[in-house]
Design a protein that fits this description.
about 375 residues; 8-stranded antiparallel β-sheet
């Protein structure tokens, strides 16, 4: 196992909430997504355990002068520092070349470690404590990770290799009845741009969740809540895989989904078994699941940009005077139409049918139709 305790030339930019931003020079330090680091405060010897989740290009104006000098090992004058803040590099080609290599690693705080002198201390749940800037950054060796993450009762199961190439094992009895083994983040399983995602802001194209995305992992500056099989979950990271071969799925009810062949789809096979199946392995005999009754709604009430479809040539219906703002009454009537309504055929004929015998509901619907120049007949 990797037992090196050499301090890395990595600087803390800031720690906000449970996320640490670290500056490093890839020519000196080879960091990888998934890697575990120890940030040890020199004065107190307390530490936090962090795991790298994404990388970004560093923003030159954000680099503190002493951090830049430490990373590139080249002193520079006040004039040069001012040029950097103006995003104009100094004339020294070596300085410009080294500065351009500096990257930003995003790391999630996982655990905290009390002060200790020798050996490996037991990790504790993070209590919100963060170290000062004067820290040493050390790779957390595999022995320490496994000593705090698993145990051995004589039923060791080999699951694979660590980032350092060493075999790793877990205790078989700890698996109980459900085994979930996942790949490295970002290993395929993507959907195409334009795929609609149900969020707390309504249906959104997936690429709109991270407007300034770059290739690879991106960190979301604003938390987004999405609907999942386990309820509402917060999204913290966004992965862009670039151009890849895709498979397009079309159901008999017109639902579509396009994604990479490895993307998992919850479906029921011809034998009646419900299971996850890769998009590229689906057949015409499979039934895919469609999410229904998700209690997640957007807050946008502006309807000014809505343009209704053109009516069928044989339609004798005039276009209604559509409202510019979604209000409680419209929301109520839309709910009524979802439950008891139907769209006339051929579509779009301009006709909407409401099958209901409740006098109060029918009166509300007729009054509303009259206010927007909609012809309503019983």
């Amino acid at each position: 196992m990797n037992t090196t305790n050499v301090a890395l030339n990595v600087q803390i930019r800031r720690i906000e909430s449970d996320l640490a931003e670290l500056f490093f020079n890839p020519r000196e330090v080879d960091l990888r997504v998934g890697e575990t680091l120890t940030l040890r405060e020199r004065e107190s010897s307390r530490s936090v355990i962090v795991q790298i989740i994404a990388f970004r290009s560093a923003s030159y104006p954000a680099l503190a002068r002493e951090q830049m000098e430490s990373l590139i090992d080249l002193p520079f004058a006040e004039e040069e520092a001012l040029k950097i803040q103006m995003q104009i590099g100094p004339n020294d080609p070596q300085f410009v070349d080294e500065l351009g290599n500096i990257k930003l690693a995003l790391a999630k705080i996982r655990k905290t470690v009390p002060a200790h002198d020798n050996g490996h201390a037991r990790w504790e749940n993070w209590d919100g404590w963060i170290p000062a800037r004067d820290v040493e950054v050390i790779r957390t060796d595999d022995d320490e990770v496994f000593a705090n993450a698993t145990r051995s009762l004589g039923h060791d199961l080999r699951l694979g290799r660590t980032l350092t190439g060493e075999d790793f094992y877990i205790e078989g009895q700890d698996l109980e009845k459900v085994n979930v083994i996942t790949g490295v983040k970002g290993s395929g399983k993507c959907v195409a741009s334009g795929t609609l995602i149900l969020t707390h802001q309504g249906l959104k194209p997936i690429e709109s969740l991270c407007p300034d995305w770059k290739m690879g992992w991106n960190f979301l500056t604003e938390k987004v809540w999405v609907q999942t099989p386990n309820g509402h979950q917060a999204v913290e990271n966004f992965y862009a895989g670039g151009e890849q071969a895709t498979v397009r799925l079309l159901t008999r009810h017109g639902f579509t989904l396009e994604g990479t062949p490895e993307h998992p789809i919850w479906c029921r096979d011809p034998g009646g078994s419900a299971k996850w199946k890769k998009l590229g392995e689906l057949t015409l005999e499979d039934y895919v699941a469609v999410q229904r009754h998700a209690p997640l709604f957007g807050a946008d009430t502006d309807l000014s940009g809505f343009v209704p479809p053109e009516l069928h040539p044989n339609s004798r219906t005039s276009s209604p005077r559509l409202p510019k703002q979604l209000d409680e009454e419209i929301g109520y009537l839309l709910g009524v139409l979802v439950g008891d309504g139907a769209v006339g055929y051929p579509h779009p004929s301009g006709r909407i049918d409401l099958i209901n015998t409740d006098p109060e509901i029918l009166e509300i619907f007729q009054n509303w139709g009259g206010r927007i120049d909609l012809s309503v007949s019983a």
